[in-house]
Structure formats: structure tokens, C-alpha cells
């Protein structure tokens, strides 16, 4: 009898000890950033192909409220999505697409691509990611690929037409603001919080939209600092929660987009364990405590494969102390956490750096003085009494936008720019391939049998002409003359002087 009681006692003791061990190994939702949680995740992932590992990225006691405040990506409803543009990129053959790609090394002069932002306790991931993509693509599209303009998150947050800010926003909102007409169209410059850099530095709080720079030390007018896009679109637009499988053709098209134009924005479902990401290829941990906390967004800058597992290389907006110095490798090709469901981007409005407008219309609303076109451009506009005069820098000198004067090239000032003088006004270049691709996707037949035409982006010299009487319908990209954009207002619907088109000058 005593031996039976003893055995029952030992069994009970073992069960209690086992429960205690399990209670310690499986973290509670309130303790997901402590040592037990990190050890548990690392134990779960140890030995798995392309495994990821966790570490303590934030302070102990980081609450769920604080975690959710660092998210902010919203996803359009099915009804909203029906009216949003989706662009299908022509995929390159797999033989052409490299196994590994990193935009930072592809365009090394665009140092802005390596920039990691920090949104703080504000649900502005959507705006931070959008600003990163705009900055990256603006540089990649510049002639010398060295225009490291840093788009302002504060401007996007406070001046977008949806009124979205720290409470969250759509991943397409920054691009729509960048590339559409209206009073607040375009994006100005702005550095990180406390940086006193650019026109509108980040503050991490919502504010009223202003046409003036919030940084009083920044000497350039808001309109002079504006950068614009020519078009915006989704690459893929599906329900994030459904995690609809992504085909290989779609993955290749997304990679082609990144390889051709630069980084893209991607929204996804963020689970509790992503806050502890340190290295490896992130795959959601399958434990009961790994709750869905909300939507988040990343800037995808490349791809690769690790341990046989494909990944997207992406920038987060939680500072450099999180993850791999602010970066994450996110599982690619299976729409993990919906990462491939809602991807958005836009194209920059072509800027002829080193030659822009300088006339009475430009100077009539500006004080006497010099106005730069871009850092390291070869000329600046001198306004005097409402009259504009181009001033060209001598050979070997370029414009310093901090002084609006010509400065000699050196190892620290515009070192990679080709030496030269102010060029003559150029004619429009050959039609870019992206405009041809956009024209090929126009639904010409929707306008009936008459010949029709469609503008290819805001403030663009290109438009698509549909020969609807021909079978099949033939399309052709037509280019306006120098100094002209296609004015898509119904009363015009033709090429016109860019200065007469609202929002384009």
C-alpha cells in the first residue's frame, strides 16, 4: 500500500514539475520579449533550413499597446480595391533574373537606399515605407544616380488626402499623394526626428498640413523642394488575411519591377514574434501565444536564398537596433503572412537635373535670389525683379544647394558627378520602356470604336493613342514636344505648355 502511495506521489510530482517546465518554456503573451520567449523561439527554429533567430530588440516590459503603436498598415476593402490601379509588370525570364539581388549594391551611388528610418511609437510604417520607396526610386531615376533626396514622412502623414497619420494608412497613400494633382500633391524633403534636416523633419506625431517648411533653418521654399511622381500603382492587390498563393510568374514580375525601378512597399500581417527578429529567414512561429497584432509594412529592396529558403530582403522602420541592423529576410514565394498580397510603388516624374525652368512665371512669385535645381546640378536660376536668368557653373564646379552658389568639385563635394558646364535645353528622350508597358495595358476597347488617347501618368509628356478601328487594336506611345505635358483635363485633352497645367509647374 505504501509503495502504491509512493508511486502516485512521484507521478504527481513529475506532472507538477513538467507543468512548471512547460510554463517556463512557453511564454505568456505579456512576456514575449523576455529571455524565456527568445530561448523558446530559438529552440523551435534550431536546425531548420533557413532558420531565423530571436533576440531582445526592445526593453523588458514592452507592452502590447506599445507594440501595436509601431504597426499601422491598413488594407483596402474589396470595394475600395476595385477602384485602385494594378500594374502587371512584364516578367523577365528566370535565366535573366539573378538568384540574389540587393538594390544597395546595384545602385551604390544612391546611398539613400541603405537608409533605415525609425517611426517610434507612431503607426506610420505605411508613410515611412512610402517615403523610403520614393527616395530610393527618385535617386535611381536621376541621370547620375546620386540624387539622395530624403522624402519627408511628416509631409506624407499630414498632407495626404485620406487624413491618415499615426493611426495607420494604406501602403498606396504616399504614392498617390506623390503622383496625383491637387493642392498638396508632391512630397518635400525631411530627415529623422530631431535631425533638423530637410523641409519637414519627422516628429512622430500628427499635425496640421502646412505649405511651409516646419524646419525654420531650412532656407528653401516648399514648392522648390517638392518632388513628384508620374504614376502610382499596385503590383499585386489581394486580401492579406487570405494569403492567396503567389505564382512563380507573379514573383518573377515583382522581382523584375525591383530590379528595373527600385524598391517597393509591401503590407503584411504582423505577429508577435517579429518584434524579436534578429537574423535568418523569418517564418512565423507556430505557438499559441504568437498572436496577430495588426498590419505592418516593409520596404523590399532585394531577394535571395538562405539554407534553401527563398526570401525578400527588406528594410523595416524600427531603427537600426532592431533585426539585422534594421533589415529582415522575409520568407518569399508562398505569400507568407500576406507579404505578397499588397505591394505598391510609383514612378518618379522625370526631372531634367541641371536644367529646369527659369523665367518670369517662375520668378514672379519668388524673392530676389538664387534657386537651385538639384544638389550637384550644373546651373541655378537667378531671380531679380521677377526676371529669371540661368547662371551656369564653370567646368569642374557644381551647385551647392545649401548656398545656391557654384562650388568646385572635390573629394567631399559632388565627387562622382561628371565634370561639365550647363547643357543646352534637351529634347524629350526616347520613350521609356515603362511607358510602352503602361500603354500596352490600357483598355482601349472601353472607349468604343473611335480612336482614343490616354495620359500615361500625371505631368507626363507621354500619352497612349489607341487605333480602335484596327483589328486587333493597335497602341502607340506619343510624345509631346519639349516644355509640354499632356493636359488630361476634359476641356483640353491634348499636349500643352507645362506651365499652364495645374499642379505641374
UniProtKB/TrEMBL annotation:
Record domain Chitin-binding type-2: where: 360-416
Record keywords, A-Z: Disulfide bond, Signal
Any Pfam family: Peptidase_C1
GO cellular component, as recorded: extracellular region
A GO BP entry: proteolysis
A GO term, aspect molecular function: chitin binding
Signal peptide range in chain numbering: 1-23
PANTHER family: CYSTEINE PROTEASE FAMILY C1-RELATED
Family statement drawn from the similarity comment of this UniProt entry: Belongs to the peptidase C1 family.
Name of the protein this chain belongs to: Cathepsin B
Amino acid at each position: 500500500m505504501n509503495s502504491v502511495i509512493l508511486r502516485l506521489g512521484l507521478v504527481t510530482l513529475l506532472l507538477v514539475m513538467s507543468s512548471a517546465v512547460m510554463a517556463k518554456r512557453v511564454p505568456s503573451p505579456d512576456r514575449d520579449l523576455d529571455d524565456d520567449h527568445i530561448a523558446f523561439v530559438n529552440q523551435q527554429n534550431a536546425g531548420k533550413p533557413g532558420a531565423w533567430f530571436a533576440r531582445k530588440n526592445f526593453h523588458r516590459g514592452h507592452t502590447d499597446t506599445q507594440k501595436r503603436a509601431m504597426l499601422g498598415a491598413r488594407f483596402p476593402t474589396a470595394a475600395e480595391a476595385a477602384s485602385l490601379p494594378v500594374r502587371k509588370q512584364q516578367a523577365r525570364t528566370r535565366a535573366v533574373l539573378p538568384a540574389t539581388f540587393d538594390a544597395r549594391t546595384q545602385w551604390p551611388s544612391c546611398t539613400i537606399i541603405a537608409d533605415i528610418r525609425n517611426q517610434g511609437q507612431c503607426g506610420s510604417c505605411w508613410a515611412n515605407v512610402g517615403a523610403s520607396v520614393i527616395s530610393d526610386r527618385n535617386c535611381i531615376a536621376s541621370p547620375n544616380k546620386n540624387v539622395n533626396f530624403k522624402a519627408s514622412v511628416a509631409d506624407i502623414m499630414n498632407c495626404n488626402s485620406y487624413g491618415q497619420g499615426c493611426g495607420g494608412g494604406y501602403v498606396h497613400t504616399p504614392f498617390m499623394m506623390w503622383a496625383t494633382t491637387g493642392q498638396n500633391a508632391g512630397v518635400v524633403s525631411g530627415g529623422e526626428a530631431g535631425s533638423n534636416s530637410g523641409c519637414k523633419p519627422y516628429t512622430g506625431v500628427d499635425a496640421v498640413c502646412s505649405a511651409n517648411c516646419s524646419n525654420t533653418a531650412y532656407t528653401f521654399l516648399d514648392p522648390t523642394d517638392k518632388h513628384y511622381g508620374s504614376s502610382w500603382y499596385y503590383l499585386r492587390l489581394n486580401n492579406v488575411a487570405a494569403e492567396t498563393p503567389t505564382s512563380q510568374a507573379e514573383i518573377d514580375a515583382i522581382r523584375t519591377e525591383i530590379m528595373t525601378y527600385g524598391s517597393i512597399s509591401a503590407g503584411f500581417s504582423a505577429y508577435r514574434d517579429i518584434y524579436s527578429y534578429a537574423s535568418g529567414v523569418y517564418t512565423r512561429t507556430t505557438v499559441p501565444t504568437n498572436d496577430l497584432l495588426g498590419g505592418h509594412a516593409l520596404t523590399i529592396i532585394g531577394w535571395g536564398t538562405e539554407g534553401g529558403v527563398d526570401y525578400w530582403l527588406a528594410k523595416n522602420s524600427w531603427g537600426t537596433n532592431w533585426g539585422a541592423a534594421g533589415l529582415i529576410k522575409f520568407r518569399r514565394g508562398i505569400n507568407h503572412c500576406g507579404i505578397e498580397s499588397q505591394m505598391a510603388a510609383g514612378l518618379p516624374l522625370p526631372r531634367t537635373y541641371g536644367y529646369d525652368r527659369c523665367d518670369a512665371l517662375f520668378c514672379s512669385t519668388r524673392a530676389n535670389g538664387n534657386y537651385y535645381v538639384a544638389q550637384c546640378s550644373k546651373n541655378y536660376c537667378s531671380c531679380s525683379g521677377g526676371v529669371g536668368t540661368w547662371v551656369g557653373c564653370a567646368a569642374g564646379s557644381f551647385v551647392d544647394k545649401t548656398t545656391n552658389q557654384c562650388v568646385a568639385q572635390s573629394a567631399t563635394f559632388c565627387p562622382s558627378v561628371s565634370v561639365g558646364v550647363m547643357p543646352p535645353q534637351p529634347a524629350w528622350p526616347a520613350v521609356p520602356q515603362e511607358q510602352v508597358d503602361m500603354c500596352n495595358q490600357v483598355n482601349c476597347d472601353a472607349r468604343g470604336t473611335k480612336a482614343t488617347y490616354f495620359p500615361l501618368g500625371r505631368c507626363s509628356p507621354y500619352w497612349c493613342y489607341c487605333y480602335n478601328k484596327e483589328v486587333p487594336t493597335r497602341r502607340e506611345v506619343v510624345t509631346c514636344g519639349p516644355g509640354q505635358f499632356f493636359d488630361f483635363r476634359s476641356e483640353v485633352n491634348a499636349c500643352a505648355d507645362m506651365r499652364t497645367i495645374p499642379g505641374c509647374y
